[in-house]
Each structure stands twice: as C-alpha cells, then as structure tokens.
C-alpha cells in the first residue's frame, strides 16, 4: 500500500507540472484533460492514505497531522491550477504549497510507516 501511495502522489506532482507547462504553452485542451486526470489521482492518493492509516494498530497525532497536511497539499495543487486557468495571482498559493509539500515529505519519510529517508 505504501508503494501505491507514493506512486500516486509522485505521478500527481509530475502531471501537475506538466499541466502548468501545457497551460503556459497555450494548450488549453490538454491542460483540462490533465486537470481531470489529476482529480482521479487525488482520489487515489486519499484512498491509499486512508488505507495506510487504517492499517496502523496505533494511530498517533503525527499520522493525523501528516494526513491533514497531505490534504492541504492536494488543495493547493487544485487551487493553483484553478487560479492559473483564470489567470489570477497564485503567489500566496505557491508559498503555501512549498511549505506544505516540505512538511508532508518530512512527516511521511520520518514516521515509522514506510520509507526511512530522514531517520539516522
């Protein structure tokens, strides 16, 4: 389940930046298609995340915090794409996205479930 979760969020991040590139190059149809694919990936990310949470025998507040920050990341991805499509300012959203992604990656790789990237 951990690998499915990591694959889904990694693919979502890659497609997010591809969608931004498509919008920048003026390919609106491709941009809209990728937004829809990303929404399916958001569902997969949330479903695998909930599955991971439910597989734990003891859910600590750190896991709940990580889940909340993960939802924050997904919200920022969707809001950035929405405002980009409307050609509105996204500066504050990008700042929030960077903070949230760094926090969720730190929490995800330092908690006992899954991969130990930040453990000594």
From TrEMBL:
<keyword id="KW-1003">Cell membrane</keyword>
<comment type="similarity">
    <text>Belongs to the UPF0344 family.</text>
</comment>
<feature type="transmembrane region" description="Helical">
    <location>
        <begin position="62"/>
        <end position="81"/>
    </location>
</feature>
<dbReference type="GO" id="GO:0005886">
    <property type="term" value="C:plasma membrane"/>
</dbReference>
<feature type="transmembrane region" description="Helical">
    <location>
        <begin position="6"/>
        <end position="24"/>
    </location>
</feature>
<keyword id="KW-0812">Transmembrane</keyword>
<feature type="transmembrane region" description="Helical">
    <location>
        <begin position="36"/>
        <end position="56"/>
    </location>
</feature>
<dbReference type="InterPro" id="IPR010899">
    <property type="entry name" value="UPF0344"/>
</dbReference>
<dbReference type="Pfam" id="PF07457">
    <property type="entry name" value="DUF1516"/>
</dbReference>
<keyword id="KW-1133">Transmembrane helix</keyword>
<protein>
    <recommendedName>
        <fullName>UPF0344 protein EV146_101258</fullName>
    </recommendedName>
</protein>
<keyword id="KW-0472">Membrane</keyword>
<feature type="transmembrane region" description="Helical">
    <location>
        <begin position="93"/>
        <end position="118"/>
    </location>
</feature>
């Amino acid at each position: 389940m951990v690998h499915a979760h990591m694959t889904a969020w990694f693919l979502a991040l890659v497609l997010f930046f591809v969608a931004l590139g498509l919008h920048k190059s003026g390919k609106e149809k491709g941009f809209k298609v990728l937004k829809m694919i990303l929404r399916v990936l958001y569902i997969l990310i949330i479903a695998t995340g909930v599955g991971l949470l439910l597989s734990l025998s003891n859910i600590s507040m750190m896991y709940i915090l990580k889940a909340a920050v993960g939802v924050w990341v997904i919200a920022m991805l969707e809001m950035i794409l929405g405002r980009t499509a409307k050609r509105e300012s996204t500066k504050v959203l990008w700042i929030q996205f960077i903070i949230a992604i760094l926090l969720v990656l730190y929490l995800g790789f330092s908690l006992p479930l899954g991969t130990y990237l930040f453990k000594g």
